[in-house]
Each structure stands twice: as structure tokens, then as C-alpha cells.
Amino acid sequence: MDLLGALHQALSSETGPDWLSDEDAFCRHFGVPYEDFAEVASCLDQGQRDLLDRTLEVNPEAAVLWVLHMEEVEH
To answer: Which is it for the CA torsion 23, 25, 31, 37, positive or negative?
Structure first.
């Protein structure tokens, strides 16, 4: 499953906290807009995407926090 597909599946879940299905709730919960998360997530390499996909399946909050705490690395 691709990154955006996995993220969409996790965020569209009918169970769980409201931030999984509501972008305003996402912003209140994490302190950043969903778009910020999506922007960082779109820069992940394939290994990181695979890890994110697996983490989203078992713990979406941990997956989001992991991405939000990444720092940009200059090459």
C-alpha cells in the first residue's frame, strides 16, 4: 500500500479518536495542520515509508508523532 493510501485509511477510520477523521481535531491534537504532516511524509525515502505504513497499521498516533519530529537533513 502506498503512503497516502495507508494514511488515508488510518485517518478515515470510523473508530478511535476524532483526530483520525477530522483535520481540525488533528491540528488541535498535534498542534500542527494535517498539511504539515503530509508535506513531511511526502519526503520520506522508501524505507521510511515502509516503516510508516507498518506503524500506521498498529499505532497511528505514534506514526504521526514520528513524522512530525523528523528534522530536515541537508545533503
So the answer is: negative
Asked, for residue 26, whether it belongs to a domain, the answer is yes
What value, to the nearest 5°, has the Cα angle with vertex 40 and ends 39 and 45?
A: 115
pLDDT values of the chain reduced to their tens digit, one per residue, 75 residues: 455 556 666 656 556 788 887 889 999 999 999 999 989 988 999 999 999 989 988 898 999 999 999 876 544
**66 in Cβ contact with 52 (< 8 Å):** yes
Tell me which residue has cell 497499521: 57
Domains: count for the chain:
1
